[in-house]
Write a structure and sequence with these properties.
about 75% helix; globular
């Protein structure tokens, strides 16, 4: 029962559309402006820096606490069983953000929520990926490019840390799945980056 409850809780937490809610508080439907995405980047562009920062922190927090609550509910499970359970919990939180039940199964790209999940499960590669994200964003001002390089770097770092025993093989597979998901969600951004007309973030 605790397993099922942790899965449901993770999805519902992930599905809370912070950017959409912040927009509605100002009588703005964020889905009708900018990139029409409910994520923190579009929230920043449409509503301003403070709502954007709040949305970013909330989306990271919901991923982090989805796994945190799962750890509490699944206390007592052995490591070999706990790893796939936490991975599934994290996946459901991210899928909740990407396919929110509150927005007819539409949502954001999953980067911030994924960051929160990985900060809980795999803090070392997460912090390294965060540094890469910040450096790339400062230099290029492309959030999409920073997100793409961060998730790819995250997977590579987790792969290196797993060698040669692969003690966290489940988490490695999980990080690969999330990397592919985020790359697919950024396919239009990748096209615009290649064409040189991707929108930059005005810092």
């Amino acid at each position: 029962m605790n397993i099922i409850f942790s899965f449901i809780l993770a999805y519902l937490l992930g599905a809370i559309p912070s950017g959409f809610i912040l927009g509605k508080l100002q009588n703005i439907d964020i889905r009708e402006h900018g990139s029409k995405n409910i994520g923190a980047t579009n929230t920043f562009r449409v509503l301003g820096p403070m709502p954007g920062i709040i949305s970013l922190l909330f989306d990271i927090a919901k991923g982090f606490f989805a796994v945190y609550f799962a750890r509490m509910l699944l206390f007592g499970f052995a490591g070999t069983i706990l790893q796939p359970l936490l991975a599934l919990t994290g996946l459901l939180a991210i899928m909740g953000h990407v396919f929110s039940i509150f927005l007819k199964f539409k949502g954001g790209k999953g980067v911030a929520t994924g960051a929160g999940v990985f900060l809980n499960i795999l803090p070392i590669p997460s912090l390294a990926a965060l540094i890469i994200f910040i450096i790339t964003l400062i230099i290029s001002r492309y959030v999409s490019l920073a997100s793409i390089l961060a998730i790819v770097s995250f997977f590579i770092i987790e792969l290196i840390l797993n060698l040669p025993e692969f003690n966290e093989f489940t988490y490695l597979i999980f990080s690969f799945i999330i990397m592919i998901l985020i790359l697919v969600r950024h396919k239009e951004n990748i096209k615009r980056l290649k064409q040189g007309n991707e929108n930059k973030l005005n810092l």
